[in-house]
Protein backbone atom coordinates (compact mmCIF):
# COMPACT_ATOMS: atom_id res chain seq x y z
CA UNK A 1 0.00 0.00 0.00
CA UNK A 2 2.82 2.36 1.05
CA UNK A 3 4.82 1.43 -2.10
CA UNK A 4 1.83 2.16 -4.35
CA UNK A 5 1.34 5.56 -2.64
CA UNK A 6 5.03 6.46 -3.22
CA UNK A 7 4.81 5.44 -6.90
CA UNK A 8 1.67 7.56 -7.36
CA UNK A 9 3.33 10.54 -5.65
CA UNK A 10 6.40 10.20 -7.92
CA UNK A 11 4.15 10.12 -10.96
CA UNK A 12 2.35 13.29 -9.86
CA UNK A 13 5.71 15.01 -9.20
CA UNK A 14 7.00 13.92 -12.61
CA UNK A 15 3.87 15.28 -14.27
CA UNK A 16 4.15 18.62 -12.47
CA UNK A 17 7.85 18.86 -13.33
CA UNK A 18 7.28 18.14 -17.01
CA UNK A 19 4.43 20.70 -17.07
CA UNK A 20 6.76 23.29 -15.55
CA UNK A 21 9.47 22.51 -18.10
CA UNK A 22 6.81 22.67 -20.80
CA UNK A 23 5.63 26.11 -19.64
CA UNK A 24 9.19 27.40 -19.33
CA UNK A 25 10.02 26.20 -22.82
CA UNK A 26 6.83 27.73 -24.29
CA UNK A 27 7.44 30.04 -27.21
CA UNK A 28 6.75 33.77 -26.66
CA UNK A 29 3.15 34.97 -27.25
CA UNK A 30 2.15 34.63 -30.89
CA UNK A 31 2.17 37.90 -32.79
CA UNK A 32 -1.18 38.97 -34.25
CA UNK A 33 -1.67 39.01 -38.02
CA UNK A 34 -2.49 42.54 -39.13
CA UNK A 35 -3.30 43.49 -42.70
CA UNK A 36 -2.56 47.04 -43.86
CA UNK A 37 -4.82 48.36 -46.61
CA UNK A 38 -3.44 51.54 -48.15
CA UNK A 39 -5.60 54.19 -49.82
CA UNK A 40 -3.18 57.15 -50.12
CA UNK A 41 -3.09 60.47 -48.26
CA UNK A 42 -0.34 62.46 -46.57
CA UNK A 43 0.88 59.38 -44.70
CA UNK A 44 2.04 58.21 -48.14
CA UNK A 45 2.97 61.69 -49.35
CA UNK A 46 6.22 63.28 -50.46
CA UNK A 47 7.53 66.84 -50.07
CA UNK A 48 10.34 68.73 -51.78
CA UNK A 49 12.37 69.05 -48.56
CA UNK A 50 12.38 68.14 -44.88
CA UNK A 51 10.73 71.46 -44.07
CA UNK A 52 7.90 71.03 -46.59
CA UNK A 53 4.72 70.60 -44.55
CA UNK A 54 2.39 72.34 -46.99
CA UNK A 55 2.33 72.07 -50.76
CA UNK A 56 3.64 68.48 -50.79
CA UNK A 57 2.17 65.69 -52.91
CA UNK A 58 -0.15 63.25 -51.14
CA UNK A 59 -0.44 59.56 -52.08
CA UNK A 60 3.01 58.81 -53.54
CA UNK A 61 4.62 55.93 -51.59
CA UNK A 62 3.11 52.46 -52.02
CA UNK A 63 2.05 50.29 -49.10
CA UNK A 64 5.29 48.26 -49.00
CA UNK A 65 7.30 51.46 -48.59
CA UNK A 66 5.07 52.46 -45.65
CA UNK A 67 5.61 49.06 -44.01
CA UNK A 68 9.37 48.99 -44.67
CA UNK A 69 9.63 52.55 -43.35
CA UNK A 70 8.65 51.31 -39.86
CA UNK A 71 10.76 48.18 -39.16
CA UNK A 72 9.43 48.17 -35.56
CA UNK A 73 6.09 46.88 -36.92
CA UNK A 74 7.62 43.41 -37.19
CA UNK A 75 8.13 43.34 -33.40
CA UNK A 76 4.43 43.84 -32.68
CA UNK A 77 2.61 42.02 -35.50
CA UNK A 78 2.94 39.95 -38.64
CA UNK A 79 2.12 42.65 -41.15
CA UNK A 80 1.39 42.49 -44.85
CA UNK A 81 -0.04 45.12 -47.15
CA UNK A 82 -2.39 45.70 -50.04
CA UNK A 83 -2.95 48.81 -52.12
CA UNK A 84 -6.65 49.61 -52.41
CA UNK A 85 -6.22 53.03 -54.03
CA UNK A 86 -3.56 55.75 -54.25
CA UNK A 87 -5.45 59.02 -53.84
CA UNK A 88 -5.60 62.18 -51.78
CA UNK A 89 -8.69 61.68 -49.65
CA UNK A 90 -10.62 64.64 -51.07
CA UNK A 91 -10.96 62.35 -54.09
CA UNK A 92 -12.52 59.49 -52.10
CA UNK A 93 -15.46 57.95 -53.97
CA UNK A 94 -18.30 55.49 -53.39
CA UNK A 95 -16.45 53.01 -55.60
CA UNK A 96 -13.34 53.05 -53.42
CA UNK A 97 -15.49 52.78 -50.28
CA UNK A 98 -17.31 49.74 -51.62
CA UNK A 99 -14.07 48.09 -52.76
CA UNK A 100 -12.46 48.78 -49.38
CA UNK A 101 -15.46 47.60 -47.32
CA UNK A 102 -15.82 44.38 -49.31
CA UNK A 103 -12.11 43.61 -48.95
CA UNK A 104 -12.16 44.37 -45.21
CA UNK A 105 -15.09 41.96 -44.73
CA UNK A 106 -13.40 39.30 -46.86
CA UNK A 107 -10.14 39.54 -44.89
CA UNK A 108 -11.77 39.63 -41.46
CA UNK A 109 -13.76 36.49 -42.25
CA UNK A 110 -10.45 34.62 -42.38
CA UNK A 111 -8.93 33.06 -39.24
CA UNK A 112 -5.56 34.23 -40.54
CA UNK A 113 -6.37 37.92 -40.01
CA UNK A 114 -6.68 39.38 -36.49
CA UNK A 115 -7.15 43.02 -37.39
CA UNK A 116 -6.95 45.61 -40.14
CA UNK A 117 -5.26 48.99 -40.48
CA UNK A 118 -6.38 51.32 -43.26
CA UNK A 119 -3.97 54.11 -44.19
CA UNK A 120 -5.88 57.15 -45.43
CA UNK A 121 -5.72 60.88 -46.09
CA UNK A 122 -6.90 62.89 -43.12
CA UNK A 123 -9.33 65.18 -44.93
CA UNK A 124 -12.12 62.59 -45.25
CA UNK A 125 -10.79 59.96 -42.84
CA UNK A 126 -13.79 60.49 -40.54
CA UNK A 127 -16.20 59.72 -43.40
CA UNK A 128 -14.48 56.48 -44.40
CA UNK A 129 -14.26 55.49 -40.74
CA UNK A 130 -17.99 56.01 -40.22
CA UNK A 131 -18.88 54.24 -43.48
CA UNK A 132 -16.83 51.19 -42.45
CA UNK A 133 -18.28 51.39 -38.92
CA UNK A 134 -21.70 50.82 -40.48
CA UNK A 135 -20.84 48.05 -42.96
CA UNK A 136 -18.01 45.94 -41.50
CA UNK A 137 -19.36 42.58 -40.34
CA UNK A 138 -16.82 41.61 -37.71
CA UNK A 139 -15.84 42.48 -34.16
CA UNK A 140 -12.14 42.25 -35.03
CA UNK A 141 -10.43 45.65 -34.82
CA UNK A 142 -10.41 47.97 -37.84
CA UNK A 143 -8.21 51.04 -37.33
CA UNK A 144 -7.89 53.95 -39.75
CA UNK A 145 -4.74 56.01 -39.65
CA UNK A 146 -3.29 59.02 -41.42
CA UNK A 147 -0.63 61.65 -40.86
CA UNK A 148 -0.59 65.43 -40.83
CA UNK A 149 3.00 65.60 -42.13
CA UNK A 150 4.39 63.63 -45.07
CA UNK A 151 7.08 61.04 -44.24
CA UNK A 152 9.68 63.26 -45.94
CA UNK A 153 9.17 66.05 -43.34
CA UNK A 154 11.01 66.68 -40.09
CA UNK A 155 9.07 65.24 -37.13
CA UNK A 156 6.73 63.37 -39.42
CA UNK A 157 3.90 61.77 -37.45
CA UNK A 158 2.99 58.89 -39.77
CA UNK A 159 5.49 56.30 -38.48
CA UNK A 160 4.36 56.45 -34.85
CA UNK A 161 0.71 56.68 -35.90
CA UNK A 162 1.13 53.54 -38.01
CA UNK A 163 3.02 51.71 -35.25
CA UNK A 164 0.30 52.51 -32.69
CA UNK A 165 -2.45 51.58 -35.14
CA UNK A 166 -0.93 48.16 -35.86
CA UNK A 167 -0.68 47.48 -32.11
CA UNK A 168 -4.30 48.61 -31.67
CA UNK A 169 -5.52 46.48 -34.59
CA UNK A 170 -3.79 43.44 -33.11
CA UNK A 171 -5.03 43.95 -29.57
CA UNK A 172 -7.78 41.97 -27.84
CA UNK A 173 -8.93 45.14 -26.01
CA UNK A 174 -9.93 46.75 -29.31
CA UNK A 175 -12.34 43.97 -30.30
CA UNK A 176 -15.98 45.00 -30.54
CA UNK A 177 -15.21 48.73 -30.26
CA UNK A 178 -16.27 49.55 -33.82
CA UNK A 179 -14.01 51.25 -36.34
CA UNK A 180 -11.43 53.55 -34.75
CA UNK A 181 -9.19 56.40 -35.88
CA UNK A 182 -5.79 56.25 -34.15
CA UNK A 183 -3.51 59.28 -34.47
CA UNK A 184 -1.39 61.40 -32.15
CA UNK A 185 -1.62 58.73 -29.40
CA UNK A 186 -5.41 59.09 -29.20
CA UNK A 187 -8.06 56.50 -30.03
CA UNK A 188 -11.24 58.01 -31.47
CA UNK A 189 -14.51 56.28 -32.31
CA UNK A 190 -15.66 56.52 -35.94
CA UNK A 191 -19.05 58.01 -35.11
CA UNK A 192 -17.80 60.99 -33.13
CA UNK A 193 -14.35 61.75 -34.55
CA UNK A 194 -13.86 64.81 -36.70
CA UNK A 195 -10.98 66.85 -38.08
CA UNK A 196 -10.90 70.05 -36.02
CA UNK A 197 -7.84 71.88 -37.33
CA UNK A 198 -6.35 72.30 -40.79
CA UNK A 199 -2.76 71.56 -39.81
CA UNK A 200 -2.10 70.65 -36.17
CA UNK A 201 -1.04 67.11 -35.26
CA UNK A 202 -3.77 66.80 -32.63
CA UNK A 203 -6.48 67.71 -35.13
CA UNK A 204 -8.58 64.55 -34.55
CA UNK A 205 -11.02 64.91 -31.71
CA UNK A 206 -14.52 63.99 -30.69
CA UNK A 207 -15.51 67.45 -29.47
CA UNK A 208 -17.44 67.41 -26.18
CA UNK A 209 -17.95 63.60 -26.27
CA UNK A 210 -14.26 62.72 -26.05
CA UNK A 211 -11.73 60.06 -27.00
CA UNK A 212 -12.34 56.33 -26.52
CA UNK A 213 -8.83 56.03 -25.09
CA UNK A 214 -5.10 56.47 -25.55
CA UNK A 215 -2.10 54.56 -26.87
CA UNK A 216 0.78 54.56 -24.44
CA UNK A 217 4.00 52.54 -24.28
CA UNK A 218 2.80 50.11 -26.94
CA UNK A 219 -0.57 49.41 -25.30
CA UNK A 220 -4.17 50.45 -25.87
CA UNK A 221 -5.98 51.99 -22.89
CA UNK A 222 -9.76 52.29 -23.26
CA UNK A 223 -12.01 54.45 -21.07
CA UNK A 224 -15.34 54.27 -22.90
CA UNK A 225 -17.29 52.75 -25.80
CA UNK A 226 -19.73 53.92 -28.42
CA UNK A 227 -23.35 53.46 -27.37
CA UNK A 228 -24.63 53.32 -30.97
CA UNK A 229 -25.03 50.32 -33.27
CA UNK A 230 -22.06 49.44 -35.43
CA UNK A 231 -20.31 46.56 -37.25
CA UNK A 232 -21.84 43.24 -36.14
CA UNK A 233 -25.05 44.95 -34.90
CA UNK A 234 -25.51 47.03 -38.05
CA UNK A 235 -28.31 46.23 -40.51
CA UNK A 236 -26.39 47.59 -43.51
CA UNK A 237 -24.76 45.27 -46.01
CA UNK A 238 -22.56 46.20 -48.95
CA UNK A 239 -22.26 42.70 -50.42
CA UNK A 240 -24.68 43.31 -53.28
CA UNK A 241 -24.11 47.04 -53.71
CA UNK A 242 -22.37 48.42 -56.79
CA UNK A 243 -23.02 52.09 -55.93
CA UNK A 244 -24.70 54.24 -53.28
CA UNK A 245 -27.72 56.55 -53.66
CA UNK A 246 -26.91 60.20 -54.39
CA UNK A 247 -27.17 62.29 -51.23
CA UNK A 248 -26.01 65.91 -51.19
CA UNK A 249 -25.38 68.49 -48.46
CA UNK A 250 -26.84 72.00 -48.48
CA UNK A 251 -24.99 74.50 -46.27
CA UNK A 252 -27.02 77.28 -44.66
CA UNK A 253 -25.84 80.85 -44.04
CA UNK A 254 -27.27 84.36 -43.82
CA UNK A 255 -29.10 85.43 -46.98
CA UNK A 256 -29.20 81.82 -48.24
CA UNK A 257 -31.28 80.99 -51.33
CA UNK A 258 -32.97 77.80 -52.58
CA UNK A 259 -30.63 77.50 -55.56
CA UNK A 260 -28.46 74.69 -54.14
CA UNK A 261 -31.44 72.52 -53.12
CA UNK A 262 -33.07 72.93 -56.53
CA UNK A 263 -29.78 72.14 -58.28
CA UNK A 264 -29.31 68.93 -56.30
CA UNK A 265 -32.89 67.88 -57.03
CA UNK A 266 -32.36 68.57 -60.75
CA UNK A 267 -29.13 66.52 -60.61
CA UNK A 268 -31.00 63.46 -59.31
CA UNK A 269 -30.48 63.57 -55.53
CA UNK A 270 -32.30 60.81 -53.63
CA UNK A 271 -31.59 62.51 -50.33
CA UNK A 272 -30.51 65.92 -49.03
CA UNK A 273 -28.85 66.71 -45.72
CA UNK A 274 -29.24 70.31 -44.63
CA UNK A 275 -26.35 71.69 -42.57
CA UNK A 276 -28.73 74.08 -40.87
CA UNK A 277 -27.84 76.93 -38.56
CA UNK A 278 -28.14 76.39 -34.79
CA UNK A 279 -30.45 73.47 -33.95
CA UNK A 280 -30.91 72.60 -37.63
CA UNK A 281 -32.99 75.73 -38.35
CA UNK A 282 -34.13 76.22 -41.93
CA UNK A 283 -34.25 79.62 -43.61
CA UNK A 284 -37.56 80.14 -45.44
CA UNK A 285 -36.24 79.73 -49.02
CA UNK A 286 -34.37 76.54 -48.09
CA UNK A 287 -37.34 75.17 -46.18
CA UNK A 288 -39.67 75.82 -49.17
CA UNK A 289 -37.24 74.06 -51.50
CA UNK A 290 -36.83 71.08 -49.13
CA UNK A 291 -40.61 70.74 -48.79
CA UNK A 292 -40.89 70.67 -52.59
CA UNK A 293 -38.08 68.10 -52.77
CA UNK A 294 -39.70 65.88 -50.14
CA UNK A 295 -42.96 65.93 -52.11
CA UNK A 296 -40.97 64.43 -55.00
CA UNK A 297 -39.87 61.55 -52.73
CA UNK A 298 -36.45 62.92 -51.78
CA UNK A 299 -35.43 62.12 -48.19
CA UNK A 300 -34.60 65.19 -46.08
CA UNK A 301 -32.41 65.15 -42.97
CA UNK A 302 -31.82 68.23 -40.82
CA UNK A 303 -28.31 68.44 -39.37
CA UNK A 304 -26.40 71.39 -37.92
CA UNK A 305 -23.36 73.35 -38.99
CA UNK A 306 -22.47 73.98 -35.30
CA UNK A 307 -20.61 70.66 -35.01
CA UNK A 308 -21.98 69.69 -31.60
CA UNK A 309 -25.24 68.83 -29.90
CA UNK A 310 -28.46 67.01 -30.75
CA UNK A 311 -30.65 68.31 -33.56
CA UNK A 312 -34.05 68.06 -31.87
CA UNK A 313 -36.83 66.35 -33.80
CA UNK A 314 -39.82 68.70 -34.16
CA UNK A 315 -37.71 71.51 -32.68
CA UNK A 316 -36.83 74.15 -35.26
CA UNK A 317 -39.04 72.45 -37.87
CA UNK A 318 -42.16 70.31 -37.63
CA UNK A 319 -40.54 67.10 -38.86
CA UNK A 320 -43.70 65.05 -38.28
CA UNK A 321 -45.72 67.28 -40.59
CA UNK A 322 -42.96 67.83 -43.16
CA UNK A 323 -41.78 64.16 -43.21
CA UNK A 324 -38.22 65.24 -42.45
CA UNK A 325 -35.74 63.50 -40.13
CA UNK A 326 -33.35 64.98 -37.57
CA UNK A 327 -29.68 63.93 -37.59
CA UNK A 328 -29.33 63.50 -33.81
CA UNK A 329 -25.63 64.36 -33.10
CA UNK A 330 -24.26 63.36 -36.51
CA UNK A 331 -22.45 66.15 -38.33
CA UNK A 332 -23.62 66.79 -41.91
CA UNK A 333 -20.90 64.72 -43.61
CA UNK A 334 -21.68 61.70 -41.42
CA UNK A 335 -25.44 62.22 -41.70
CA UNK A 336 -24.91 62.03 -45.47
CA UNK A 337 -23.29 58.59 -45.13
CA UNK A 338 -26.01 57.24 -42.85
CA UNK A 339 -28.71 58.57 -45.16
CA UNK A 340 -27.07 56.92 -48.20
CA UNK A 341 -27.04 53.57 -46.41
CA UNK A 342 -30.56 54.08 -45.03
CA UNK A 343 -31.78 54.70 -48.58
CA UNK A 344 -30.44 51.30 -49.64
CA UNK A 345 -33.15 49.86 -47.35
CA UNK A 346 -36.04 52.31 -47.12
CA UNK A 347 -37.48 55.63 -48.23
CA UNK A 348 -39.93 55.87 -45.31
CA UNK A 349 -39.19 59.02 -43.23
CA UNK A 350 -40.22 57.27 -39.98
CA UNK A 351 -37.79 54.41 -40.66
CA UNK A 352 -35.07 56.88 -41.61
CA UNK A 353 -35.62 58.68 -38.30
CA UNK A 354 -35.44 55.36 -36.43
CA UNK A 355 -32.09 54.69 -38.14
CA UNK A 356 -30.75 58.10 -37.10
CA UNK A 357 -31.69 57.42 -33.45
CA UNK A 358 -29.98 54.01 -33.49
CA UNK A 359 -26.69 54.59 -35.33
C1 LIG B 1 -5.58 63.86 -47.82
O1 LIG B 1 -6.57 63.92 -47.09
O2 LIG B 1 -5.38 62.94 -48.61
C2 LIG B 1 -4.56 64.95 -47.77
C3 LIG B 1 -4.38 65.52 -46.43
C4 LIG B 1 -3.88 64.56 -45.42
O3 LIG B 1 -3.79 63.36 -45.59
O4 LIG B 1 -3.56 65.05 -44.30
Structural features, described:
The chain is of the alpha/beta class. It folds into 2 domains: 205 residues, L-asparaginase, N-terminal domain (Rossmann fold); 112 residues, Rossmann fold (3-Layer(aba) Sandwich), CATH 3.40.50. Helices cover 33% and strands 18% of the residues. The protein has 11 helices and 14 strands. The N terminus is likely disordered.
Quickly describe the structure.
The chain has 359 residues and is of the alpha/beta class. Helix content is 33%, strand content 18%.
Q: Please tally the β strands and state the result.
A: 14
- CATH domain class of the largest domain: Alpha Beta
Question: In order across it, which strands form the biggest sheet?
Answer: 2-1-3-4-5-6-9-10
CATH H-level superfamily of the largest domain: L-asparaginase, N-terminal domain
Compute the CA-based radius of gyration: 25 Å
The succession of helices and strands, N to C, reads: HEHHEHEHEHEEEEEEEHEHEHEHH
Briefly note the CATH topology name of the largest domain: Rossmann fold
Class from secondary-structure proportions? alpha/beta
Number of domains: 2
So what's the overall shape? globular
